[in-house]
Amino acid sequence: MTNQATYGTSEHRTGLWLGELVHFYDKAVKAGHTVDVVSPAGGEVPLDPRSLGRLFVDRTVRGYLDDQAFMDALKATPSVADTDPDDYSTIFFTGGHGTMWDFPDSADLQRTAQAIYADGGIVSSVCHGACALINLRDTDGNPLVRNRTVTGFATVEERLAGVKSRVPFLLEDELRAKGAKYVRSTVPMTPHAVRDGRLITGQNPVSTKAVSDLILAALAGTEQQPS
C-alpha cells in the first residue's frame, strides 16, 4: 500500500483506496490465508478521502472501518524492505493515486516482487497498484509485463475521475510502453480482471473482488472464474 498522501506536492489529498485493500484482505483471510500489510516506506498509510464516500463504503468496508485494531495497523505498517520474499506466495499491489508516486521506482518493492515471481509466486495488482508493475523485470532482465495481458486504471477513467491533469503519467500508456497487452472493460468503471499465468491484474476499484477471486483460484490451483 502507498505512503503518499497527496497528488505530488499539491494540496489535493489521495492515498490508499481502502476498499481495494479490504475486499482482497477479507476474501483472502476467509479462504484461510495469512495476509501481511506493508508499505514502501513503512509507517502510516493515508486513506484516499474519496474511497470513504457513501458510494464506496459497503458493509465489508464499514466492518473494517469499525475494527479499531485493523485501522490502527494502517498507521504503523512495516516497510517492505523488512519483509523476506521467501515467506510469501503472492504479492498484491493495492491502488489509490498515491501509488503513482511511490510504487514505480521503489527498489524494495521491485526486489520483493521479482523474488516472489522468480520463485514461482504470484504478482498481482488492482487499479493504480499496477504502477508497481511498470519497472519489474523477469529473470532475463526484460519487463515483466512485456507481451503479457494486463489491466489497470484506464485513461478514460482518469478523465471521468476528474484528475487526469493531476497525475504524473497515464498508467495505460506506461504499461503499453513496456510492451504489455493492455486491456480494459468496454464500459469504464465496471469490473474487469485478467489472469496471464502468474500475473493477475484488475482494472479499477470495483474490480477488486474479481481479481481477488482469480488470485485465490491460482493459489488453489484451479481455473475458477471471477465472481
Q: How would you characterize the overall build of this protein?
A:
It comes from Streptomyces lanatus. This is Type 1 glutamine amidotransferase domain-containing protein. Belongs to the peptidase C56 family. HSP31-like subfamily. Keywords: Glutamine amidotransferase, Lyase, Stress response. InterPro entries: Class_I_gatase-like, DJ-1/PfpI, Prot/Nucl_acid_deglycase. The structure is a single chain. The chain is an alpha/beta fold and 227 residues long. 30% of the residues lie in helices and 9% in strands. It contains 8 helices and 6 strands, in the order H-H-H-E-H-H-E-E-H-H-E-E-E-H. A 4-stranded mixed beta sheet has the order 1-2-6-5. Helix 1 runs parallel beside helix 8. The longest helix has 13 residues. The chain is globular. The two termini are 24 Å apart. The C terminus is likely disordered.
Indicate the topology:
Layout: H1 18-30, H2 59-65, H3 68-73, E1 90-93, H4 99-102, H5 107-118, E2 122-126, E3 149-150, H6 155-161, H7 171-177, E4 181-182, E5 193-196, E6 199-202, H8 208-220
Parallel strand pairs: 1-2, 2-6, 3-4
Antiparallel strand pairs: 5-6
Helix pairs in contact: 1-8
